[in-house]
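Let us practice reading a record.
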Amino acid sequence: MSVENPLVTIITPTYNRSEFILEAVESVIKQSYPHFEFLIVDDGSTDNTVELLQPYLKDERVRLFQQENRGQSVARNVALAEAAGEFICFLDSDNYWPLDKLENQIRIFEKHPEVDVLYGDNVIINEQGKEISRKNMSRYSGRIAARMIQDNCVAMNTTMARRRCFDEMGGMSGKRRVADDYDLWLRFSARYEFRYEPEYWAWYRVMEDQISSDKTQRFKVNEAIIHDFRREYPEALSTRDFDKGFAHFYIRKGRYLGATGEKAAGLKEIVKALKYAPAESNVWRALFAVALK
């Protein structure tokens, strides 16, 4: 496998992450599986990120692209347009991988050629790199659209996906500032086979300045994403599964608002859930739970 014909393309967008990016880069360069290209897109950093990356550009597998600050979705699409690999992986510049991630994932794809998207779990760390938790949400295999409409169970930094999925359905939509990964995997779930492996394939850093840490904004964006999905891919699920998924979403949102002291707003979301699934007992349990807070 030559450098000119890599099997795997790794994409890392970065913006002012000089404190962490070398850990991310090292975790790629030292992978036990060597047949990759590593595309880093600097999204207009104002720190010394670009300077720090210069020594790594001596490795012919590594390429650096620079653009004005346009957001990580645009940065990822820039790299996707340049990607030569049969498989695509994403690694954010404040996270990192175990050194056998690519090797293990390629082995699984060889064993399961029916799989289109492979993913696993995160080890959650804080800004200082200290482990916080290894507890992950429930994740699923197969045609997972019915699960994905309820919540995004795919951990972006753990994924490896076939390049043809992006060729057929496109890359990051760029419609919104947050949750573009959810939009991507939800779209892919309409057509492709997912496989979850209970392996820790990324260390995921949680920081105060992360866009994704704003949960209220994330609910708002996710709501728009699931409505877009239902409108654009009406054949992906039955009406019942769509309604059940929407009800589950509004239950989660209502419970969250109720737990943060916004009882009236929370109840309003549960009422939306009732409209979608009035016969579901979990909706009524959520209604009483929020009402009695």
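A brief commentary: The CA atoms of residues 8 and 73 lie 20 Å apart.
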